[in-house]
Amino acid sequence: MQRVFEALASVPRRKILAYLAHAELSAGEIAARFDMSKPSISQHLSILESAGLVSSEKRGQFVYYRLVPDNLTNTLNGFVQEVCPVARPLKRESAARRDGGNPDAA
C-alpha cells in the first residue's frame, strides 16, 4: 500500500494515470504530453509500474502502458477500510464470523 501512495504523491504520475484511464499509450505518446525529459518520464513510469498501478508490454520497438485498475481500487478500498469508522465494527464482525465466534463478543 505504501508504494501506491508514494506513487500517487507526484502530480506528473497522477497525470499519467489520468491519460491511461481510457486507453493504453506508448511511452513516447505519454512523453509527448509533458514538458520534461524522456528519462524523467521513464522514471515516473517505472515508479508507477513498481507500485503495480500500470503494466507495460513491449511491441516491436515501442513499449505500451495501461492501467491496472484492480490494484488501485483494492489499495484505496483497503485504505478506506482502515480509516473509516463505520468499517471497523464491520471488519470485527466479519473476522468473528470467519473464526466461528460470536460477532457481538468481538
Automatic annotation (TrEMBL):
Residues 1-87 form the HTH arsR-type domain. Signal peptide: none annotated. Keywords: DNA-binding, Transcription, Transcription regulation. InterPro entries: ArsR-like_HTH, HTH_ArsR_DNA-bd_dom, HTH_MetalResp_TranReg, WH-like_DNA-bd_sf, WH_DNA-bd_sf. It comes from the Bacteria. It holds the Pfam family HTH_5. This is ArsR family transcriptional regulator. It comes from Sphingomonas hankookensis.
